[in-house]
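Researcher: Re-running this chain for the archive, since the previous output was lost when a drive failed. Same request as before.
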Amino acid sequence: MATEDMWVTVRPGDPFPEQQKCIRALGVPGLDQEAVSHPDSYIALWLRPDGEAVCGTAWNEGGIVKARFTWDGKQFTGEETNGFRILKYCEHDSDKYHWVRAKEANEHALLYIGEYVPAVVVCGKDAAIGKANWQRKMVWTCENNCESCHQDEEFSNCFLLAKE
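Model: Regenerated structure tokens:
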């Protein structure tokens, strides 16, 4: 489970937290940097007013933090939130993150945020960052305001964020 000390809280327009050792969204085996809209992407979390966790991506744009989130079939920018969080490395030795294919994942090693896990779905040379529900074996992503639900083989082949 992700704890409070694992996140940097930012607001739209804040300077990017360079000194916080934020965790990049890339690092997926075989995924080149051109596959994600913003190659310098980081794992982001928006907690909606109703409490639902929404995984997304944040990046440094000219020294300012920017973000994008998927929820209910729509994309939201960081500016449309009242603030969000970026995952960071903790000082604890056990907090080492890596991407693992869902079909090879250990349920207890996944980084849960409520009932969800940050996920990357790779389709050819493209990749989308979203959220997975391990129990339901589903991943949701959104590109160009079009939500996709990935199940079965697509779920098995997606990458989930885990801790060592």
